[in-house]
Prior knowledge:
Order of helices and strands: EHHEEHHHHEHHHHHEHHEEHH
Structural class: alpha/beta
Number of domains: 1
Low-confidence stretches: none
CATH superfamily: Alkaline Phosphatase, subunit A
CATH topology: Alkaline Phosphatase, subunit A
Mean pLDDT: 96
Shape: globular
Number of helices: 15
Helix content: 40-55%
Amino acid sequence: MIFIDGVGIGKKDYQYNPFFKYGFKTFEQLFDDIPAIDKQRLSKNGCYVFPIDANLSVDGLPQSGTGQVSIFCGMNAPKFIGKHFGPFPYSTTIPVIESLNIFKSYIEADKRVCFANAYPQVFFDYMNSGKTRLNVTALSAKSAGLRLNDVNDVIDGNALTAEITNERWNKNLNYKLNVISPESAAGRLINIALKNDFTLYEFFLTDHLGHGRIADEFDQIYHNLDNFLFTLLTKINNSDLSLIICSDHGNFEDLSVKTHTNNPALGISAGKHADKFALEIIDLTDIKSTILKHCL
């Protein structure tokens, strides 16, 4: 499972939708098209693009905190608390995360799970200082008893940095890691997935870009993600692995605003059960149950 923060299916807009403005070979070469509001579903050679309702019958713009709880716990978090909320989980959803997250579901079924992201030392310093505010994915992994990966796991090839290639860790955090290509990172993630029953990787820089941050790194982040996803989809499509790529809300697909959008969140599936994912996942709350139904 690849979770990509803040990517929706937007208008066919060559000015503000980067997928149309700059092109995205993951869509153009694998599906011969780019998803848009007027063409939300694409399929070719066993791969599928499909919309995921992120509004969940609650007014306002969807947010990461409630959206991610809805994804990873299979419940309507904004309806539960009465509003969309984020970026961190709302206080009353924390017990829900601790009891219902998808990692825990797999572990309780005696399955092998992996949260493939690694965290830099500054994150562990934050944790050791007594501060406990975590995003939904990290809190899910921690509450399920998983050890969070560090720089040594990246060096050993057992984890990925959140920006795929290690470059930002070197540039911003003074690490001296070997820079890897997006294609190599995709191969590493597949190798990790082959050792586990459920593997999650989270990519959040799309949401940062959608909010107008780190604009000077746009081209590199955009093309790294494209090459990473293209490689994953190509390699997994004819394998026994199942791949689900999903987001929590729209944002990146409309750069005319620096807020989230009410657009459908992006869903992509490939590999085993790909057709079932595309058919059965209608909104964010369906993602966990559909994965468990077909892959547990």
